[in-house]
Amino acid sequence: MRQLRALQATFTVHGFHRNNYAISKLIAFCALSPHGNLSYASLLFNQIEMPNSFIYNTLIRAYSRSSQPHLALHYFDIMLRDENVTPQNHTFHFVLFACANAGWILLGRQMHCWVCKNGMILADGHIQTAVVRLYAGCKVMDDAHKTFDEIPYPDVVQWNVLMNGYARCNLASEALRVFRYMFVIGVEPDEFCVTTALMACAQSGALGQGKWIHEYIKKKSLDFDVFVGTALVDMYAKCGCLYLAVEVLEGMPKRNAFSWAAMIGGFAMHGYASEAIRCLERMQVEDGLKPDGVVLLGVLTACTHAGLQEEGLLLLDNMKARFGILPRHEHYSCVVDLLCRAGRWDDALARIRRMPMKPLASVWGAVLSSCRTHKNVELAELAVKELVQLDNGDIAEEAAAFVQLTNIYLSAEKGEEACKIRRMFGERGMNKPPGCSMIEVDGISNEFVSGDVSHKDLPQMLAILELLLPYLTTKPYH
Question: Where are the PPR-type repeats located (predicted)?
C-alpha cells in the first residue's frame, strides 16, 4: 500500500488520475489483493467522475466477500442510478454472493427474480451457482434444491454447493444422498465434493460410506491435500476409528492446525487425554505450528472427559502467556464443565463470576448437567434461572433446561416439584425436544426421531407392533 500511494501520487502529477483504466488498476489492487486496503479503494472510487462497470464490479465483488456485505449492495445501488453503466452478469453474481453472505433471503429472492426475468440464469453458470449458494447459505434447502434441479447440466461446483448446504444444515443424510446420485448420472466428484461428503459422514456416523470414499480417493488418485486429509481424520475420529484417523494423519504429506485439531478432537471425544496433550506438543515440534483456540479447546475437552482437573486449569490460566491466545467463552465453559463434573461447584461458580464476558447457555448448561449426576437441586434451580434470563436464549434451549430440572427433581425424589414443571409445560405450550438416533445400514445413514411416524412408515409400524403384541401386557400402554 505504501508503494501504491506513491504510484497514485505519480498518476496525479501526470494527470493519469482522470484515466479510468489507470485508476481501475489501483482500485483492483486495493480491493482484491490480500495486501490491499478496501477502505482506501472506496476513497479512490469517490474521486472518479465517471466510473465504468469494471470499477463498480470490482468494489461489489470485494465487499460481497468481506465482513461488510451491505456495502456491496450500496455500490450496486449507485450503479443502478448511474445512467452511463449497465449491470452485467458478473454484477448479479457478486450481488447474489453478498446476499448469501449477509443472510438477506428476501433481497436475494428479488435478485433471483431479476436474473430470471432477464434470462441470465439460463445462460450463466456462475449466476446459477450463486442462486443455489444463496438459498443454501440462508438454509432454505427446498428452494436450493429446486433451483439446482432447474439447471440443465449442473457442474461439479454446483453439486458441491448443494451438498455443502445440506451438510451445514445438519442434514447429513440428504448430503450423502446427493453425493450418491452424482455417480448415478455419471458425474465424478472432485476433491471438494469428497471433502464435503466426508464432513457429512462425520456428522451422521456413516463409517461405511466414509471408508468407501477413502477407497475412491485412492482409486481415482485424487489430490490428497491438507483439506481431504483433515476431512478423513475428522471422519474416522468421530466414527470411533481412532487408529485409522492416526494412520491418515501420519500419512499426510502436509498438515495444518486444523488437521491436528481434528485429531485432538477425536482423542478428546473418546477420553484419551494424554494422547491429545501429546498431539499439542507434536504439532509444535514436528510441524512448527502454533496452536490456535480450536486446538486448545480440544485439549481442554480431553482434560474434561478424563477428569484431569489440574492440567485443564493450568492450560486455561496459561493460554495467554504460553500461546498468545486470549481464552474465549468456550474455553471457560469447558473448564466450568471440568470443575462441575468433579463436584467442585464453589470453584466453578467462582470461575463463572471472574469470566471477562457474560456467561452464556453453554456455561450454565454444564452446571445443570453435573447437578443431575450429583443430585444438587439447589444449584440446578440457579442454573435454570440463569438460562431462562439469557437475552439470546431460545424456546428449545429453555425447554431442554426444564426437562433436565424435572429429571433432577425426580432423581432427588421431589415428585411434586417435577409435576409443577410438567404443568407449566402444558400452560406455556412448550414441547419436550424429541429424541433422535441414527444407524447406518448398507452404507446408508438412517435417522429416527421420536414421535415421527409418517404414512409411508405405517406398514412397517404395524408389522413391528404385530411382532411385539405377544409381549405386551393387558394394561393400557402409556
Answer: 52-87, 155-189, 256-291
